[in-house]
Amino acid sequence: xxxxSSRRLVGIVLALRLATVAGCSSQLPPSPQKLQTAGxxxxxxxxxxxVSEAVAADRQERFAKVDGPSRLTRAIESELTHAxxxxxxxxxxxxxxxxxxxxxxxxxVFWFGLMAGADILDVKxxxxxxxxxxxxYTTGAGTSGAFAGxxxxxxxxxxxxxxxxxxxxxx
Length: 171
Hints:
Blueprint: H1 4-25, E1 46-51, H2 57-65, H3 68-82, E2 92-102, H4 106-112, E3 118-129, E4 132-144, H5 152-170
Parallel strand pairs: 1-2
Antiparallel strand pairs: 2-3, 3-4
């Protein structure tokens, strides 16, 4: 049995560990929130995907490695077509800027599963017609877990599909 001073010491150590964990989690960047804008946009003519300079260089490289710009463009255009909101004759452009991106390696998913964190794709969507901004908002998606698959391309396509649905639903 532990003495009173030993129990007190154990209590202090546990309290400090709890405070450290709580302090670390409060430093996570907030997830983007939807900006309040009025109205909806009926159709867009094209989709342009870029990556923000604020995204770390190694993550920009990983985004390019999975052919992120063209895969995300195709996913959004497919979702727009499905919703009957893609009109190639329209002068409206849907600019998609990737603001946060993380795709776990297959090895990390295999060895660490949930402990490897989440795959994340956050975007800022801006609908432009000429020099006018018709609508602007942010959205994103994330997946976690060991069962999301080991292949990075298939996991990216799941993220792109989820983001595409959210982009079109908020359009």
